[in-house]
Amino acid sequence: MSFHAMNRRKFLETASTVTAATLLSSRLGWAAGEHKIEKIGVQLYTVRDLMKTDFDATLAKVAQIGYKEVEFAGYFGRTGEQVRAAVEKNGLLPVGTHVQYDELDEKFPSVIETAKTIGIKYIVCPWIPEELRKNPDIWKQAAAKFNHCGEQSKKAGLQFAYHNHWFEFLPVNGKLPYDELLKECDANLVKMEMDLCWITAAGGDPLKYFNLYPGRFPLVHVKDLKKLPKITEGGSQNFGDTVDLTAVGSGIIDWKRIFVHSEKAGIKHYIVEHDKPTDAYASITESYEYLNKLRW
Description:
Blueprint: H1 3-33, E1 40-43, H2 48-53, H3 55-65, E2 69-72, H4 80-89, E3 93-98, H5 108-118, E4 122-125, H6 130-133, H7 138-155, E5 159-163, H8 177-184, E6 190-195, H9 196-201, H10 206-212, E7 219-222, E8 224-225, E9 245-246, H11 255-259, H12 262-265, E10 269-272, H13 280-293
Parallel strand pairs: 1-2, 1-10, 2-3, 3-4, 4-5, 5-6, 6-7, 7-10
Antiparallel strand pairs: 8-9
Helix pairs in contact: 4-5, 7-8
């Protein structure tokens, strides 16, 4: 081989390596900074007082702000057909609904039918009442109930899930209730809607659970707090009464650190919530604007 040919070959090999490295670097750079939330959702519990006053106007305002997905916490006396018409009119996707623990038995078939009528995919139990949590076997009982609801939901083409507060991260007989639920619940029948604020308030780390249970968290509640509160097992704090909540992005939670692991967690729906906003519209607007600009 001539000297000229050897030099040419080395040049091409070097150029190919540099080009591949450049492309890889560019691709990694995109992956690290160009992920965003395509459809930001809101838990309508945040605007519940407004929903009571004017259901349709509130949904219209939510859509006007920019939200694409909504999660219900009650239908305010409306039928499934009426709710479906309202969300369709405003171009909103009804991804989930919260139903109370006492609705998971005899009432559950009706819960499923209403959810199907509206077009909801996820039926979520938002919490277990304080008086029931005094029973030392409640978490095992709850897991069995959730699995049963999960079976019924699956047959109907829906998915059952559980939403945490912070008491699930306080030890009971040396064990964390959240850990027990994840172990006792069938991973296919019961998903978790992780409230990223409440786990943070309890001193827990979402990433620990994303790593241990990948794919179990298709929905997350996105809300922020100004400082870590003093937490207790029960009482009014469960509703956020004594926690200094704030609009997303104006608090202490590092959202990029969490969302960079969204794929591993299995997150499909990012749902803004504020339990007790002073001005609900202002709160969800600020949260939307922050998340809409967020990249990771």
